[in-house]
Amino acid sequence: MSDAQEAIGRNFLKTSAFAVVGASRDRTKVGNEVLRWYQARNLNVVPIHPKESEVEGLETVADITKLTAPSTTALSIITPPRITLAVLQTAKDLNTPAFWIQPGAEDEAVIQYVKENGLNDRVIYGGPCILVLGDGIRSRL
Predict the structure, then answer these.
(1) Is 24 within 8 Å of 51 (Cβ atoms)?
(2) Hey, how many other C-beta atoms are within 10 angstroms of the C-beta on 37?
(3) Which helix (H) or strand (E) holds 124?
(4) CA-to-CA distance for 84 and 100, rounded, in angstroms?
């Protein structure tokens, strides 16, 4: 992880609320693992799923516009790249403070959008996974 990504990761994990876009009821899916990572650390997390009403005992919201406070909620994104791009576009308008795009949830269009819209200092992408690096970053907060 680069120094810039470390700094973004610290800012991401300092937020008071988190949402998992792409949360899944399937415990074998990364979206479920990421959600449980937040839960295991007693962090304030909301699963986002367009169809499910509950994931891992938590009430879901259908999309990020339904979050109580999107401008203070950091987003973990585990979705196909075309969905990730739409999430970023909406989240930019909502002034979302930070994003952690999990491996595989980005493509060139997502990366280009991040760069062209001044989100470089708020987005982790390109491989680092919160499941692998999150605890290490939290220990340095």
Answers:
(1) no
(2) 19
(3) strand 123-124
(4) 11
Q: Rounded to an integer, what distance in angstroms lies between the CA atom of residue 128 and that of residue 100?
A: 9
What pLDDT digit, counting tens, does each position of 2-55 carry? 788 888 999 999 999 999 999 999 999 999 999 999 999 999 999 999 999 999
Q: Which residues contact 101 (CB under 8 A, 6 or more apart)?
A: 77, 84, 110, 123, 124, 125
Contact between 100 and 124 (Cβ < 8 Å): yes
Q: Look up residue 57 and give its two tokens.
A: 């005992």
Instruction: Provide the whole-model pTM.
Output: 0.94
Q: How far is CA 20 from the centre of its chain?
A: 5
- The tens digit of pLDDT for each residue in 41-68 reads 999 999 999 999 999 999 999 999 999 9
**Per mean pLDDT, which range of 29-38, 97-106, 126-135 is the poorest?**
126-135
Contact 34, 57 (CB under 8 A): no
Q: How far apart are CA 103 and CA 84, in angstroms?
A: 12
Quote the CA–CA distance of 134 and 129 in Å, as a whole number: 8
CA nearest neighbour of 48 among 58, 66, 60: 60
